[in-house]
Amino acid sequence: MAREWTRTVMTAAAAAASVSLLGAVPAVAATTTRHCVLNSETGVQKCSTGTARAALETQEAGQVVQGTFFDGPDYTGNSLTITGPELCKKDGWVNWQFDLGDDWKNKISSVQPWGDCWVWLYPEPNLGGDRDGPFKENTGNVGSFMNDRTQSIGFS
């Protein structure tokens, strides 16, 4: 019996030493970043778990990238790129609007406008509620007013 007890203690000590030398094994594997491209005219969304570039390669011909949105600050985390039929016009009006699906509602933290578009963020569907913007340049932090509150987007 004494011999079994000694063996158990030595095994436990060896295991503890291994953890201290090698570091603890993470309990959960890292999550995969998802990059999606959404055609605002058709509503078709294609996603990639590779790079954002891989997702953009699925973009349909003739579509213009109007904006890319990230769920993390400084363009990190999952991304959603929205395409439209043409460049935005600077005529004082929202040229295109898009209501976010449940998978993107209340998640946007950073914005990249494209296609001559200014981006407006709204806290309600159909461009409802107080808006924030226009975001005319890459914005790594949309600010506390609209961070994780956006439900619809206007492109002008």
Automatic annotation (TrEMBL):
Bias (Polar residues): 138-156
Keyword Metal-binding appears in the UniProt entry: no
Signal peptide from the UniProt entry: 1-29
Disordered: annotated span: 131-156
Domain of life the protein comes from: Bacteria
InterPro entries according to UniProt: G_crystallin-like
The keyword Ribonucleoprotein is annotated on this UniProt entry: no
Keyword annotations: Signal
Name recorded for this polypeptide: Peptidase inhibitor family I36
Organism classification: Bacteria, Bacillati, Actinomycetota, Actinomycetes, Pseudonocardiales
